[in-house]
Design a protein that fits this description.
eight-stranded parallel sheet, 17 helices, alpha/beta, globular, 8 strands, TIM Barrel
Length: about 350
């Protein structure tokens, strides 16, 4: 881990923030998991310290894809009731508000949330949408939702999620995401589904160029209609894909801590974020899975400024860029952008 807790977070915490890439399933509080375990008989360690080792990346853990994803095997045990899904959604929004986030796009995987108790996908989506709306009002933070599907699961499930998602656009479900193991699973079976989702009015963001090559970024942009790319850090391996992303104005949802912990980059100093910025790519900063990584977005800002030497002026520009890249309707986006400009004095 490269977190430096000796440096005050105040200057980063005080900044208004916009986050475009945060997974609901990676945002559960440890205290909440212990409560759920007691109430629903989930077999996990009874101490917070031991549970942390199962669901959060530890300093001594290997920085590998396998270790990172293993945390989700335990996390999937906790979605035991509608009340649990309501609680974790509300708390994810509350935690964003506590970190001075003005707007967050929270992505969730209906199939993963439904699987523990075989809930109908429609019910799961309704619970998340309603809980997010109510929490947004209570905590005074604007929330958009993105429905995510995984490459290793069936296109039939993805098609069902896309069809249901289109019915919730008026309720703040703004986009679709393709995630999962890009190293072993192609996007080909999902291309038609995402094309139809886009035609229905849903925005498109795709995980690509994280554990797969730059070609996957090209595929996301050209064949899946991605407006934004989740992670995308391996784009720098191919100058032609860099040029394509610049030409299309593709937004990159970069998650520095996650990339380090999951072995996408070998060390923090080798992270390609500075090179991506120097190449003129459009970068935003995000947490990915804040609970799994044991960070906040304020921590992420601190890491990037103090470890990767991003000037605070460029950090502020990245916050504004995230607002400009929001999947909100144009009138709402304009209001968000103007309010961020005022707060950041840009």
């Amino acid at each position: 881990m490269f977190r430096d807790d000796t440096t005050p977070l105040n200057q980063y915490f005080s900044l208004p923030k916009v986050e475009l890439h945060r997974h609901l399933e990676g945002s559960l509080r440890l205290t909440t998991m212990l409560d759920i375990a007691r109430q629903h008989g989930v077999t996990v360690p009874v101490s917070m310290f031991n549970l942390s080792g199962l669901v959060q990346v530890q300093d001594q853990d290997p920085q590998t894809f396998t270790n990172f994803l293993d945390k989700f095997k335990t996390l999937r045990l906790f979605y035991k009731s509608p009340d649990v899904i309501d609680r974790v959604t509300r708390e994810a929004v509350e935690d964003a508000a506590k970190d001075n986030i003005r707007y967050i796009e929270l992505r969730f995987t209906p199939v993963a949330l439904s699987r523990a108790e075989r809930f109908p996908l429609h019910d799961v989506m309704e619970w998340v949408v309603n809980s997010a709306q109510e929490a947004a009002k209570k905590y005074k933070v604007k929330v958009g939702l993105i429905a995510s599907v995984n490459r290793h699961e069936s296109p039939e499930l993805a098609e069902q999620v896309a069809w249901l998602a289109a019915g919730y656009m008026k309720d703040g479900l703004l986009g679709m995401d393709l995630a999962g193991n890009e190293a072993e699973f192609k996007s080909d079976p999902f291309q038609g589904i995402f094309k139809e989702a886009k035609q229905a009015g849903l925005h498109i963001t795709i995980h690509a160029g994280e554990w797969g090559p730059a070609e996957n970024v090209r595929d996301a942009i050209v064949n899946l209609g991605a407006e934004r790319v989740g992670h995308g850090v391996r784009v720098m391996e191919d100058e032609k894909v860099v040029a394509l992303a610049k030409e299309r104005g593709t937004i990159f949802e970069v998650c520095v801590t996650s990339n380090y912990q999951s072995g996408v980059v070998r060390s923090l100093p080798s992270h390609p974020l500075p090179r991506m910025m120097a190449a003129g790519l459009r970068i935003t900063l995000n947490t990915d899975d804040p609970s799994v990584s044991r960070i906040t977005l304020s921590h992420e800002y601190q890491h990037v400024c103090e470890k990767l030497k991003m000037p605070v002026s460029l950090l502020k520009q990245s916050v504004l860029r995230a607002a400009q890249a929001a999947f909100l309707p144009e009138d709402e986006k304009t209001k968000l952008v103007e309010s961020i400009k005022v707060e950041l004095k840009l």
